[in-house]
Amino acid sequence: MDLGTYAEFPVFKGVTEKDLAEVLRLGVETGFGRGAVILKESGKSSDLFILLSGRVSVEMEASGASSEGRRDLLVRLRPGDVFGEMAFLDHSRRSAYVVASDDITCLRLDGEGLERLMESNAVLGYRLMRNLARILASRLVDSNFRWRNELAGPRI
């Protein structure tokens, strides 16, 4: 994939070609088959992922006595979407499963290396953090609307 394609992804909005090339040096393109678990809820890792092809499902373990082993779908992501951002940002355990819905390719960015790069290049760090904040804000708004609609129930 060329720099121009990566530059179109929301997480890289406003990032210079030179800075983008530095970020991409921290990444490895990785493929997963349909059904593969890419990230496990409660797993430890700060790596950040960008979906290049295919779709993934973000899922959480269902709670309650009768839900053992069941996971609920939170969102389905498409090429250009980022995942793993929560653990990247706060260095905590993974908060959800990410499962390949199709055969997929993603870019796995080394979380520790990316953080060092962002600390050494304040402009790049600002742009990436701003973009991640916008992505998270958009997801929160979508989640709020889904939650509201579920609470409202069916309309007659």
What is the chain-wise order of helices and strands? HHEEEEEEHEEHH
Q: What is the strand content? A: 25-35%
Mean pLDDT: 90
Shape: globular
Number of strands: 8
| Classification by helices and strands | alpha+beta
* Main sheet strand line-up: 1-8-3-6
Describe the SSE topology.
Blueprint: H1 3-7, H2 17-24, E1 27-32, E2 37-39, E3 48-53, E4 56-61, E5 71-77, E6 82-83, H3 85-90, E7 97-100, E8 104-109, H4 111-120, H5 122-152
Antiparallel strand pairs: 1-8, 2-7, 3-6, 3-8, 4-5, 4-7
Keywords for this entry:
globular, 38% helix, 156 residues, alpha+beta, four-stranded antiparallel β-sheet, 5 helices
What can you see in these coordinates?
- With 156 residues, this protein is an alpha+beta fold.
- 38% of the residues lie in helices and 26% in strands.
- It has five helices and eight strands.
- The strands form two sheets. The chain has a four-stranded antiparallel β-sheet. Strands 2-7-4-5 form a four-stranded antiparallel β-sheet, with no helix packed on it.
- The termini are far apart.
